[in-house]
């Protein structure tokens, strides 16, 4: 990303992009991402440093994606249920819908809640395999 991307997103985004970013914390074709950053994101190599968080015990490899405190309220009554799972580098939402599911549509919450309610070794194995398929496709 450009150096002041997080502190001053309004310098790089239109008002519509800024509104989407504030709601979802992501954008398709984010204008703040450099060419190298696009390659890193497309191949998911930008996720590799998170393995340090796995080693320290803050993250698991598979689980609901980490979210901000503000975003936890998007889960409504199911907030505590999702928060009971350790967040992961990859998860059901990331390998099924990823950028096609939004907080606004409720699909992201539904995918993360599905994982929290059905977590098992079998589901984790499916997520693991689908993660590598998504990386290979550049999604």
TrEMBL record:
Cell compartment(s), UniProt: Cell membrane
Domain Bacterial sugar transferase: 13-135
Record keywords: Cell membrane, Membrane, Transferase, Transmembrane, Transmembrane helix
Record-linked InterPro entries: Bact_transf
GO cellular component: plasma membrane
A GO molecular function held by the record: phosphotransferase activity, for other substituted phosphate groups
Keyword Glycosyltransferase: no
Family designation: Belongs to the bacterial sugar transferase family.
Name of the protein: Sugar transferases involved in lipopolysaccharide synthesis
Organism: Gordonibacter pamelaeae 7-10-1-b
Taxonomic placement: Bacteria, Bacillati, Actinomycetota, Coriobacteriia, Eggerthellales
């Amino acid at each position: 990303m450009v150096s002041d991307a997080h502190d001053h997103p309004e310098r790089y985004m239109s008002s519509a992009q800024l509104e989407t970013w504030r709601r979802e914390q992501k954008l398709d074709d984010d204008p703040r991402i450099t060419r190298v950053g696009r390659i890193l994101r497309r191949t998911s190599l930008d996720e590799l440093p998170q393995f340090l968080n796995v080693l320290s015990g803050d993250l698991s490899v598979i689980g609901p994606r980490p979210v901000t405190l503000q975003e936890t309220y998007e889960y409504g009554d199911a907030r505590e249920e999702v928060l009971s799972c350790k967040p992961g580098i990859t998860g059901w939402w990331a390998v099924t819908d990823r950028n096609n599911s939004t907080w606004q549509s409720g699909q992201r919450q539904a995918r993360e809640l599905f994982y929290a309610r059905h977590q098992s070794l079998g589901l984790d194995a499916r997520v693991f395999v689908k993660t590598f398929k998504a990386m290979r496709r550049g999604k």
